[in-house]
Each structure stands twice: as structure tokens, then as C-alpha cells.
Amino acid sequence: MVKEITLRQVGGSVGATIPKDMADRFNLEPGDRILAVETHAGVLFSPYDADTVEALAIAAEAAKEYRNALRKLAQ
Questions:
Q1: What stretches of 2-65 show up as alpha helix (H) in DSSP?
Q2: Quick one: which of 38, 48, 49, 57 has the most CB atoms within 10 Å?
């Protein structure tokens, strides 16, 4: 499903309002946390999961540590 969302100024940040029917389907309520992941196609919103956050941090550290090897493998 595709929904158009209008971004709004919220203090010093920019906020997005999720349509009620979509929030209901994903059991999202005010105060819930979600992850915003940058992808090659845009931004992916996903339910917050501490294990996912930890795994992404480990992957980022490994990519940083082995960036030269990864660059060679990408050729």
C-alpha cells in the first residue's frame, strides 16, 4: 500500500504523520518507536527492535574496520 504523507516542522526536526488506518494495521500508537533505515530506494520505516539496532551497529563497525577489503571485493 502506498500513502502520501506530508512532512511538518516539529521544533527543530521534521515529523511525519502516519495515517490512522496504517498505524492500526501495524499496531502503532503515540509514543511507539520505529526505525528509519536509509536504503538505495529511499527511507524504510520498520518497527523498533533492539536486536536489529545492535546488529546494524555491529555491521557498521565491521564495514568501517574492513572497508578496504570490502572495497576490493566490490570490484
A1: 20-25, 50-65
A2: 49
